[in-house]
Amino acid sequence: MVDIKAIQDELKTGKLDGWLFYDHHHRDPIAARVLSLNGDLMMTRRWFYLVPSRGEPRKLVHRVEKNTLDSLPGKTIVYSSWEELQKSLAKLLAGSRTIAMQYSPDNNIPYIGLVDAGTIELIRKLKKKVASSADLVQKFEATWTHTQLEGHLEAGRRIDRICREAFARAASFVRESRPLKEHELQAWIMQQFREARLVTAEPPIVAVQPNNGNPHYEPDAATALPIRAGDLLLLDMWAKLDQPDSVYYDITWVGYVGERVPDSYATIFKIVRQARDKAVDFVKDSVARGREIHGWEVDRVARQVIRKAGYAKNFVHRTGHSIGREVHGNGANMDSLETRDDRKIIPGTCFSIEPGIYLPEFGIRSEVNVYVGKREARVTGAVQTEVLALLR
Description:
Oligomer: single chain
Strand order of the largest sheet: 4-3-2-1-5-6
Radius of gyration: 24 Å
CATH class of the largest domain: Alpha Beta
Structural class: alpha+beta
CATH superfamily of the largest domain: Creatinase/methionine aminopeptidase superfamily
Number of domains: 2
Shape: elongated
Largest sheet: 6 strands, mixed
Distance between the termini: 54 Å
């Protein structure tokens, strides 16, 4: 159930007159989740739902689909023609000056920018100021319940175990001189997920060099490489419990298929680890001190470590992403590269910290999840401290 009072309290805090939700053909999944709408409802006509900072919410729906928002409180206005829509929209927004929508100025946070430009123009034509709903979305879409946190921790225990077993399996096949390709180990991991009652939208990344130099490498039967002695093996796996409203756990570890890790791998991992740990410590210290921080600041801390080591051009992605019911959630991302995410990091949210260095010969990434509570932040799973020597 949508908590109208909680939304109104946040609107007052943010000095906003309302939050205007809009959708057409299920283009805005954020609206559906925040409003707890049935995702199976037919939505072939435009609808609007205004939660004002004070007073009763208001709905605007098409006569063909006039029951679309019946699950929500508030008075309903019905339209048929586009002229009627525009007149009714003016009535819906009467008394409001500044309203929040799923909009991001300059598309700075594209994950929030889900309302089309024409609709924004229409709202502005009605003399309304459109503000970004980014902070509201984080508050009502990205914060976790206690049950979700516990589910995340349980998923983490299962995934950490499967990760260890996957490395052990790769080492066993090499010791016994049995062939094992990247996509075959990937399929085995997916089977372990199913047996552990875990689900994921996409399969894990299993990559040896040079494929691990590609941050989003996807092995398949046609192109997958064999896992052999002397390989650097990267495993990036994410999944969640197979139950309603569960949230993801997402990690990346690296192992060397040999007895002694070569200096070239150990050196790069050390830099990546330092960048990861600096960012984690920055978050922990800031939360403990009650200092307000933003996603871009966390990215900058990690990026500076890699830049000083001379590998700035080889760190090609953001430091981390929000984690929620999707592996890439709708909270603040740790990003000053791809975007400048200026959203505040707030209690009840979780995100990855996963710096990486990608060279033509190989790539190394280390990923942990950080959960922010009211007075402390913590890493929610096992932390890798060195490249694993798998044949030791």
